[in-house]
């Protein structure tokens, strides 16, 4: 046999599974798993068809009982015995019959189960602490008389009989055919021993392997692949096809998503330190125009609705409105690999009019300031590069009229030298003094620059004259206080109707300049004067500071005179005063709109009110209430958490960690499904986490075990190994998983029965540590529970996918009912124990946020790296409020490029179709569906924006033959089973039970398929109900045809109407 193996060139050394290369295609069906042709020779009569997937129901198997040698009772086909005839007329003793192959397969499985059980009992009673494998090998050695490492069929039968498992000749033949034998019909018992205790996944990987995800060009036979798949060039490990995988789901993955997202509302207002010039205005229609992240927004306050301009690809840094207040210009940060540009767009239609590309200069060439001329014909822009280039545009013709350097920068503290531009819109009213006036000024570090247009432009080119304050000698009449205006940072500027310029400084001073000369100044505010704006009557000037103070000035005289002072109240008890970032006056009214440095927009009248709420810190954590379809929560790095209503588009209430915490940054948030989702858990970067009860407005403060706040020798907190990075309740709310930066997951018993009592809701004793999951090599960032609250899957930043026993059932029988018990398991698992045997078979997950796994192989577009995908969310398939009928499941993903992607779920096609939606300007850190799948919420990380998307379903309902899972029914059944198992009166099987009860899958009673893969099942019925399934399929197809006919009729009517 070895000579034959040498001639065929198939000799190999025995390898471990981790080292082993995939076998050649021609050997996949000729060599059993774990077989080494170098050691054992060429295998004989290997029939891989005998290998069956585990847990296959044997309901259709023919029950055969022997009443004597060769006799049959119970009906059926004669079994192979003395005188038995096979299909081909072979009378060899022990040759298996084709007609009873299913019977033999069922008996082989039972023999394996009995053998494992008996070996387990022997290992427990062994005084030498032997393992099951060593006992089995020692038994085979007793019948290996020649010491060749192989055993004959007779020796095999005797060995199993000595272990308490009786087998006949036909069953021995079936086992030899399954596990492999050489040309002399001898079985290497090391192959049998190794494979008997090997998981089905390992066995499958030996024979069936695919090195890429499914392709769009794959045929149906290719999509029916059942084995191990290594995709993304092995960077994300390998996955396994579920045993009940339906290729029709892959066909759906080839189609564009059944729905798309439409931006509905943007929470927040851009007010961080990257924005220096005013960015909040009233429009001609008395709406409010502003921007957040990469979105230009027009807000209708009365209807609480927004319109959006989405022409930008990165952060918007500046904004200006033309004199008619109907056109806006916005400039953005320089995109990666592109040019900085300014978009000019219509405030009513939200359509782009022109796009002005700027040159890329040394340094950061982002556009940081923009302003229209007094007649709206010209547009002035300033870039952030080293020379702070200023460009004057004839924007309608996209022509550059003037471009020059202004000042060199940036300043010592890293800020640009120019903050903004202010145009003198009043100079046309004084034609006799026009020659003495300047057209606009630029303000910034240590002074201002004034620019003037000559009367007669030469050769059609506009050339500006400028005068600037750069040295003390240039200033006349220095104030007596000694404060030299030219050395102050000027944060804002405005022009009065008499041609004077007013500016505000970082020290809270207000200055008046006449003909570029210092005229007057006053210490107006205690802190930085950040904004100046003139009312429509040109008689009152408003100044706002960073300490929430607004002063009204009468500017009809020679110098401004203060009229009134008011302080904007803090939005919440204990919060900081809102610093004023922008002001604009409502035409013909005393009302004005204010933007704060806390990313909020106020409408200020007698009673100031927040009309748009935002987050004033990095936003990572969002979560949807599983019980209320319009409610969701958010948590940002300031430590404050908000509960939002998606219909009202405003927060219902908020809470934060008590004052005095060293590091209040909140990183994650999650809802408990108990009752109406009244309990919320929040994790912090300091290692703390709290549970807040919204009904009693009480919270329990906790720490990750053994992760109390630590400090280094300098007294600074050590955060990189103690923060909480992910939280997730199980579907029943009785277990909470807390992932820490120490690469572990902690499981807590929530004692949810105590959450209903006001006296115990805030007790730390409610939360008892159940277990700890240890095994990841990097930080855990995603956790998902299964539908029964028994298992978890987790992802790490190293792209690891591990499975854990979260809260296993108390008995073996409970796990068998759920289909989670492997016969090779010796005991009931403990909470936190890693699960290795369930990866492929179990697929009923309550949520799916992992970027790794079989149903999400195709979520990486060709131009996207796997590390660019931050998190995903999968809908429940309920269809949302617009269509309560069943729809297919959808998947949304959040990327580092600021995009939200949508796929059909499951997404198993490499490079499959998807939709991409812009809006965020930073990495999208989190995304989630609301409880009814009608909306999607995305969190933008550093851009502090939270976007609310509505799910718009297409007219087509997917391809014919697909239906989504009956998610609500399955979850209700899972809840019922969970409560039954927890009930004290639940029946527990006795130890003397003769046979293991049949596994009853809950989904079968609900009319769906067992072990249903994520994304739903097809409309095929069980084998025993094929007639009913065909009738249901016919009815479904007829319904689809009627819908198509109705749609065609509606299209014809619309087409005829348009033609008329």
Structure description:
This protein has 14 helices and 57 strands. The strands form 15 sheets. Strands 6-57-56-55 form a 4-stranded antiparallel β-sheet, with no helix packed on it. It has a 4-stranded antiparallel β-sheet with strand order 7-8-9-10, with no helix packed on it. It has a 4-stranded antiparallel β-sheet with strand order 11-12-13-14, with no helix packed on it. α3 (101-125) packs across α4 and α5 (153-162) crosses α6.
Search tags:
1060 residues; alpha+beta; four-stranded antiparallel sheet; 14 helices
Task: Give the secondary structure arrangement, pairings included.
Elements: H1 2-8, H2 37-40, H3 101-125, H4 132-142, E1 150-151, H5 153-162, H6 169-179, E2 187-188, H7 189-196, H8 200-207, E3 209-210, H9 220-223, E4 228-230, E5 238-240, H10 247-253, E6 259-267, E7 280-282, E8 288-292, E9 295-300, E10 305-309, E11 316-321, E12 327-332, E13 341-346, E14 352-357, E15 367-372, E16 378-383, E17 390-394, E18 399-404, E19 418-423, E20 440-444, E21 447-452, E22 465-468, E23 490-495, E24 501-505, E25 509-514, E26 517-523, E27 529-534, E28 540-545, E29 549-554, E30 561-567, E31 580-585, E32 592-596, E33 601-604, E34 609-612, E35 619-624, E36 631-636, E37 640-645, E38 650-656, E39 666-671, E40 679-684, E41 688-693, E42 698-703, E43 724-729, E44 735-740, E45 744-749, E46 768-774, E47 780-785, E48 791-796, E49 801-805, H11 812-817, E50 834-835, E51 869-874, E52 890-895, E53 900-904, E54 915-917, E55 926-929, E56 935-939, E57 946-953, H12 967-982, H13 1002-1005, H14 1026-1059
Parallel strand pairs: 3-4
Antiparallel strand pairs: 1-2, 4-5, 6-57, 7-8, 8-9, 9-10, 11-12, 12-13, 13-14, 15-16, 16-17, 17-18, 19-20, 20-21, 21-22, 23-24, 24-25, 25-26, 27-28, 28-29, 29-30, 31-32, 32-33, 33-34, 35-36, 36-37, 37-38, 39-40, 40-41, 41-42, 43-44, 44-45, 45-46, 47-48, 48-49, 49-50, 51-52, 52-53, 53-54, 55-56, ...
Helix pairs in contact: 3-4, 3-6, 4-7, 5-6
């Amino acid at each position: 046999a070895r000579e034959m193996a040498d001639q065929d060139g198939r000799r190999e050394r025995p390898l471990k599974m981790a080292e082993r290369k995939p076998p050649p295609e021609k050997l996949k069906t000729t060599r059993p798993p774990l077989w080494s042709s170098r050691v054992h020779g060429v295998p004989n009569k290997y029939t891989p068809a005998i290998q069956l997937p585990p847990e296959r129901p044997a309901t259709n198997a023919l029950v055969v009982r022997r009443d004597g040698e060769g006799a049959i009772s119970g009906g059926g086909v004669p079994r192979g015995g003395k005188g038995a005839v096979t299909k081909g007329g072979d009378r060899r003793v022990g040759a298996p019959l084709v007609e009873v192959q299913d019977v033999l397969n069922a008996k082989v499985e039972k023999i394996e189960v009995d053998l494992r059980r008996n070996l387990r009992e022997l290992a427990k009673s062994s005084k030498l602490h032997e393992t099951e494998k060593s006992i089995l090998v020692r038994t085979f050695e007793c019948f290996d008389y020649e010491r060749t490492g192989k055993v004959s069929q007779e020796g095999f039968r005797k060995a199993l009989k000595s272990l308490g498992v009786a087998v006949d000749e036909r069953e021995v033949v079936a086992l030899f055919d399954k596990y492999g034998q050489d040309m002399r019909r001898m079985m290497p018992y090391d192959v049998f021993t190794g494979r008997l205790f090997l998981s089905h996944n390992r066995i499958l990987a030996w024979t069936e392997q695919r090195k890429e995800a499914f392709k769009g060009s794959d045929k149906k036979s290719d999509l029916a692949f059942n084995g191990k798949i290594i995709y993304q060039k092995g960077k994300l490990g390998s996955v396994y096809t579920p045993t009940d995988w339906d290729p029709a789901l892959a066909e759906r993955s080839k189609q564009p998503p059944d729905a798309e997202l439409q931006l509905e509302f943007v929470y927040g207002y851009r007010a961080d330190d990257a924005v220096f010039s005013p960015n909040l205005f009233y429009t001609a229609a008395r709406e409010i125009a502003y921007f957040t992240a990469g979105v230009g927004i027009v807000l209708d306050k009365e209807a609480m609705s927004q319109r959006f301009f989405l022409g930008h690809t990165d952060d918007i840094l500046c904004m200006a409105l033309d004199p008619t207040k109907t056109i806006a210009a916005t400039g953005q940060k320089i995109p990666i690999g592109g040019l900085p540009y300014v978009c000019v767009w219509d405030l009513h239609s939200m359509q782009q009019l022109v796009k002005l590309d700027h040159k890329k200069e040394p340094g950061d060439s982002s556009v940081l300031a923009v302003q229209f001329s007094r007649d709206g014909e010209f547009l002035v822009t300033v870039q952030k590069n080293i020379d702070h280039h200023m460009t004057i545009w004839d924007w309608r013709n996209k022509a550059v009229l003037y471009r020059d350097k202004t000042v060199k920068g940036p300043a010592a503290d890293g800020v640009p030298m120019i903050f903004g531009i202010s145009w003198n819109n009043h100079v046309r009213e004084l034609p006799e003094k026009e020659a003495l006036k300047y057209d606009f000024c630029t303000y910034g570090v240590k002074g201002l620059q004034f620019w003037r247009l000559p009367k007669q432009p030469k050769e059609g080119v506009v050339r500006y004259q400028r005068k600037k304050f750069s040295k003390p000698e240039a200033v006349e009449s220095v104030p007596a206080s000694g404060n030299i205006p030219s050395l102050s940072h000027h944060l804002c500027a405005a022009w009065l109707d008499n041609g004077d310029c007013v500016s505000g400084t970082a020290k809270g001073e207000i200055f008046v300049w006449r003909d570029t000369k210092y005229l007057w100044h006053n210490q107006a505010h205690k802190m930085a004067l950040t904004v100046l704006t003139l009312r429509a009557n040109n008689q009152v000037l408003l100044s706002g500071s960073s300490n929430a103070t607004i002063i009204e000035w009468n500017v009809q005289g020679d110098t401004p005179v203060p009229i009134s002072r008011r302080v904007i109240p803090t939005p919440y008890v204990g919060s900081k005063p809102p610093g004023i970032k922008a002001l604009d006056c409502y035409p013909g009214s005393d009302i004005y709109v204010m933007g704060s440095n806390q990313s909020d927009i106020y409408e200020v009248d007698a009673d100031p009110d927040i009309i748009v709420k935002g987050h004033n810190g990095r936003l990572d954590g969002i979560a949807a209430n599983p019980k209320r379809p319009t409610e969701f929560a958010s948590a940002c790095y300031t430590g404050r958490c908000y509960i939002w209503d998606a219909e009202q588009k405003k927060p219902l209430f908020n809470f934060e960690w008590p004052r005095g915490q060293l590091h209040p940054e909140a990183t994650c948030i999650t809802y408990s499904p108990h009752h109406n989702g009244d309990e919320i858990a929040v994790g912090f970067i300091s290692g703390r986490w709290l549970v807040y009860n919204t009904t009693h407005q009480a919270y329990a403060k906790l720490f990750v075990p053994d992760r109390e706040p630590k400090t280094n020798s300098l007294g600074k907190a050590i955060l990189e190994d103690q923060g909480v990075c992910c939280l997730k309740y199980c579907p029943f709310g009785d277990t909470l998983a807390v992932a820490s930066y120490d690469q572990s997951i902690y499981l807590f018993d929530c004692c949810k029965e105590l959450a209903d009592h006001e006296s115990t809701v805030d007790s730390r004793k409610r939360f008892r540590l159940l277990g700890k999951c240890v095994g990841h090599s990097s930080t855990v960032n995603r956790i998902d529970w299964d539908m029964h609250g028994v298992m978890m899957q987790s992802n790490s930043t190293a792209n690891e996918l591990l499975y854990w026993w979260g809260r296993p059932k108390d008995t073996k029988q409970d796990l068998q009912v759920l289909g989670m018990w492997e016969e090779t398991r010796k005991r009931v698992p403990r909470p936190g124990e890693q699960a290795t045997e369930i990866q492929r078979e179990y697929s009923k997950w309550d949520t799916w946020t992992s970027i790794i796994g079989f149903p999400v192989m195709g979520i990486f577009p060709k131009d996207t790296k796997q590390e660019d995908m931050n998190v995903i969310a999968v809908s429940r398939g309920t269809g949302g409020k617009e269509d309560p009928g069943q729809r297919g499941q959808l998947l949304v993903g959040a990327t580092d490029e600021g995009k939200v992607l949508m796929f059909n779920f499951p997404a198993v096609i490499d490079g499959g179709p998807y939709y991409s939606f812009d809006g965020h300007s930073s990495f999208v850190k989190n995304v989630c569906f609301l409880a009814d799948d009608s909306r999607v919420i995305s969190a933008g990380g550093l851009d502090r924006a939270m976007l609310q998307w509505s799910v718009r379903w297409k007219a087509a309902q997917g391809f014919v033959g697909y239906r989504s899972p009956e998610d609500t029914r399955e979850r209700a059944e899972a809840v019922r089973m969970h409560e039954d198992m927890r009930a004290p009166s639940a029946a527990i099987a006795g130890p003397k039970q003769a046979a293991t009860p049949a596994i009853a899958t809950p989904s079968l009673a609900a009319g769906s398929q067992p072990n249903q893969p994520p994304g739903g099942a097809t409309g095929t019925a069980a084998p025993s109900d094929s007639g009913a399934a065909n009738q249901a399929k016919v009815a479904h197809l007829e319904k689809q045809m009627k819908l198509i006919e109705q749609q065609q009729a509606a299209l014809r009517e619309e087409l005829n109407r348009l033609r008329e």
